Amino acid sequence: MNIHIAVVSLLVEDVPATAHFYRDTIGLNIMPHHEGDHPHFDLDGCTLTIVRGRPALPPDPEPRFPVVAFSIPELDTAIEKLRLHGMDLPWGVETSAAGRWVMFHDPAGNLVELVEFKQ
Question: Which residues are CB-contacts of 64 (< 8 A; sequence separation ≥ 6)?
Answer without folding.
Answer: 91, 103, 111
